[in-house]
Amino acid sequence: MPGFELFGEEEKKQVNEVLETGILMRYGFDGARKGIWKAKELETAITQTFGCKYAQLTSSGTAALTTAMAALSIGVGDEVIMPTFTFVASFEAVLSVGAIPVLVDVDETLTLNPAAVEAAITPATKCVMPVHMCGSMADLDALKEICKKHHLILLEDACQSIGGTYKGKALGTIGDAGTFSFDFVKTITCAEGGVVMTNSESTYEKCDGYTDHGHDHKGVDRGADEHPFLGYNFRISELHAAVGLAQIKKLPQFLAIQRSNHAQLKSILEKVPAVSFRSIPDPSGDSCTFLSWFLPTENITRAVVAEMKAQGILAGNFYWFDNNWHYIRKWYHLKNGVALNALNTAQQVALQKIQSQNFAASDAVMSRCISTSISLLWTPEQIAEKGAKMVAAIEKVLQQQAVHA
Ligand SMILES: *Cc1c(COP(=O)(O)O)cnc(C)c1O
Q1: Ligand 1 atom closest to 186 (CA)
Q2: Atom of ligand 1 nearest to the CA of 131
């Protein structure tokens, strides 16, 4: 999964070009920067690589989501439908613009169940935000249809699925807007960074201003810029963008390695009848950052995860053990509405509602799911060894359960 695994001379060279000019900011200083515009160059590379009209870099993936929501006029009182399985950033962004996160069940795609989305629509619903978790995608045709029917915005949180596609289009470029994160553990890293992608010029112009104090970037210099609306500072620095430029050039290589390692591991697990795999709306578009698979019951899964941990194999279970980040079950701060500053009344009411909501359908999926992160550094021998240990762990647990039954 992470681009930091193949980090080296290319990144150093890009960063050094910025250090030599001494201009670390993405705007202004036109003479002193000697033609070096890393953030602009990376934005162009993103539009070309992923096939969208516009790209606005931000300081993080969370900032990208926040920016996209502001640009799409999502704010106080608006409901945003999002999945129970994601990274905390998704609801942080919703709350930070004053909007209301409405959590709905995931299915075996590990992202939004379209029927659950439709059932959650109210007159206050403004946006549906699928999160393409663990490298693969939501059922975008079904979600697009729902959004069209109910006049809703489709915002893709594609932070974890850089390089994935759906029916030939890059994830993150299919909705009204989409975001990537370039944090340290993502497929491409800038150390910290993110991007909003869109095909709408007006949405892009809003993102451009919002991330830089509302500047319209049309003055002869920064001081002469107008401020047509309020903004914040979600800018990326030239140093971060420089790292991203080196990384995006390696994306085809990252994806090829991920796909090959994923296929090798999958071919080993496939031989175990008790194992089933995540359902993927367009299998050819899986970016293969993770191999996500299921065991028949919660108990078996729990025992296999424990056995794999004992063997030193990363198990990636989001339901129990030490993961407090990705699944609603352990988002106590969200469910209890614990914030440093006041949430608005509609948000408080909504969070109280989440406390008593039943997510049995999500639990039934997530408690049986193991997501194995695919490393770029594995050798074929290491994958064979890992796969054999995983199979042995599953077989040991199944035998024990058969004895007890
Ligand atoms: C990483 C991530 C984000 C945001 O990431 P930052 O760490 O703020 O760059 C948002 N959503 C998902 C699903 C993520 O995995």
Answers
A1: 1
A2: 13
Please write the tens of the pLDDT for every residue from 263-279.
999 999 999 999 999 99
Instruction: Indicate whether 44 and 163 sit together in one domain.
Output: yes
Listed in sequence order, the DSSP H helices in 215-331 are: 238-249, 251-269, 298-310
| Options 186, 250, 335, 386, the catalytic residue | 186
Predicted local distance difference test score (pLDDT) of residue 1: 58
Please give the full DSSP string across 338-400, using - where no structure is assigned: --SSPPPHHHHHHHHHHHH---HHHHHHHTTEEEEEPPSS--HHHHHHHHHHHHHHHHHHHHH
Report how far residue 319's alpha carbon sits from residue 322's, in angstroms, rounded to the nearest whole number: 9
Per-residue confidence (pLDDT) for residue 353, from 0 to 100: 92
The residue-averaged pLDDT of 229-235 equals: 97
Same structural domain, 366 and 241: no
- Residue among 205, 375, 384, 396 at smallest CA distance from 295: 396
Number of H helices, E strands in the chain: 14, 12
- Among 205, 347, 248, residue whose Cα is nearest residue 50: 248
* Per-residue pLDDT at 319: 78
Quick one: DSSP state of residue 129?
A: -
Structure tokens given for 136: 């693969």
Q: Which of 191, 220, 251 is the last residue of a domain?
A: 251
Q: Examine the pLDDT at 221 and tell me if it is beyond 80.
A: yes
Q: Domain range spanning residue 204?
A: 3-251
Pocket probe for ligand 1: among 110, 157, 171, the residue whose CB has the most ligand atoms within 8 Å is 157
What mean pLDDT value characterizes the chain?
Answer: 95
* Cα atoms in the Cβ-side hemisphere of radius 13 Å centred on 14: 24
pLDDT tens, position by position, 312-322: 888 778 776 66
Residue 60 Cα to ligand 1 middle (Å) = 8
pLDDT value of residue 324:
75
User: Beta strand pairing status for 276-277 and 194-198?
Assistant: unpaired
239 and 269 belong to one structural domain: no
**DSSP conformation letters of 65-99:** HHHHHHHTT--TT-EEEEESBS-THHHHHHHHTT-
Q: Which tokens belong to 115?
A: 């029927």
Q: Give kind and range of the element (H or E) at residue 55.
A: strand 54-58
Is the model more confident about 331 or about 392? 392
